[in-house]
Specification:
The structure is a single chain. The protein is α+β, with helices and mostly antiparallel strands. The chain has a single domain, classed as Glutaredoxin (3-Layer(aba) Sandwich), CATH 3.40.30.10. Helix content is about 30%, strand content about 25%. The strands form four sheets. The chain has a five-stranded mixed sheet. A two-stranded antiparallel ribbon has the order 1-2. Strand 3 and strand 4 form a beta hairpin. The chain is globular, with a radius of gyration of 16 Å. This is Thioredoxin domain-containing protein. One of its GO terms (cellular component) is cytoplasm.
Amino acid sequence: MMLIRGMTLLAFASRVAGFAPRAGARLGRAPLRMISVGDSVPMDGEFMTLGSGGPGPLKYDEVFKGKKVVVVGVPGALTPTCSEKHVPGFLSKQDEFKAKGVDSIAVLSVNDPFVMGVWKEKLGAGDDVAMLADGGAQFVSAADIGFDTGGFGGTRCTRMSMLVNDGKVEQVFMEEGGGYTESGEGSNADHMLAQL
């Protein structure tokens, strides 16, 4: 966890930017009721993705129906921990996930498709990695996997990894808000692989 003057980056940015979280906001914390093993993911709605023809919708059921998908949820595209540790761990182990029956890896963030497209290029992710833009946090809210950063960035996806098989959650590993556990139990790629 990055600390500045003894505070988390979010707390420091809050103080510098001068915003206060909304009353009742669970700043930097996972939601009270999160999606769990055995739950169904939302299937009625659309992500946005950036393809060669520009941005376009991708229905939730196109991502999950009849497929085994590892979803890597992150608080923000292009952020240091997400770009340097969390997502690269999954990208470097794509072949290992495929060997264990995973059809695809999907990276989920509350960002727009253009940001997700730029991030995909910077990560060097191939076409078989879906970069799911949830700009209005509809999926994140419906699945109860968001947390509120107030004026810093609104609702964000809790850092997590989740194995979804034909729309049903088989594994889910949530971090505390935007925190990251690099080894051992947590949302990292090695921990997910060990569960398959």
